[in-house]
Amino acid sequence: MLNIFKREKKIELFAPVSGTFVALTAVPDKVFASGMMGKGIAVNPTSDMVVAPCVGKITLLPDSKHAFGMKTANGAEILVHIGLDTVNLKGEGFEAMTQAGTKVEAGTPIIKFDRELIEQKGYPLITMLLVTNSSDFEVDVSEITEVTAGKTSVVTVTK
C-alpha cells in the first residue's frame, strides 16, 4: 500500500563548533570511531564556543560540562562531546551557558571552553556530534572541509 500521507520528518544538524570536518571513523578513539555511540561527525575546533546543532531541548548537561545531550522534534537524540577523555577534567576549563531542560534554537551557545588550558593538560579537543539513537533513523553525513558553528549543515536525520 502506498504511504502517500506519511510525511518524512527531516531534521538538519549544523556544526556544533567552528573548525575542520573530521570523518567519525578518523577519530582517535575506538568508541566514537566505531559508531558504537551512534552515527555522526567530528570537528577539530578553531573556536571555543559550542552551540546547539538544531532546535530541541537540552536533556543532559553533566557537571563536567564536557558534553551535552539534546532531543529533537522527530525524536532524534543528539550528543555533542567536546574532546577525548575530557570528563577527567571534572568541569575545569568548561563553562555552561545554559542548563538541562532548556529549549534551544540552532546556534544557541551551550558550552564555552578554555582551549589553552585543556590543550596544556594534554587533552585533544576534537568534538563529536552524534545521533545516539541513529538505528531508528536515516542519517546522512555531509563531508565539508571547513565548518562554521550553527551555520554549516553537516548531518540530516530522517524518521
Q: SSE order in H/E notation?
A: EEHEEEEEEEEHEEEE
Question: What is the number of independent domains?
Answer: 1
CATH class: Mainly Beta
- Runs in which pLDDT lies below 50 for 5 or more consecutive residues are none
Based on CA atoms alone, the radius of gyration comes out at 15 Å
Task: Output the strand order for the largest sheet.
Answer: 9-5-6-7-11-3-2-13
CATH topology: Glucose Permease (Domain IIA)
As a percent range, the share of helical residues equals under 10%
| Major β-sheet profile | 8 strands, antiparallel
Total number of beta strands: 14
Q: Quick one: CATH superfamily?
A: Glucose Permease (Domain IIA)
Shape: globular
Helix-strand category? mainly beta
Please identify, by name, the CATH architecture: Distorted Sandwich
Average pLDDT confidence is 94
Helix count from the secondary structure assignment: 2
Share of β-strand residues: 35-45%
N- and C-termini, Cα separation: 19 Å
Properties at a glance:
three-stranded antiparallel beta sheet, 159 residues, globular, Glucose Permease (Domain IIA), 14 strands, 6% helix, mainly beta, eight-stranded antiparallel beta sheet
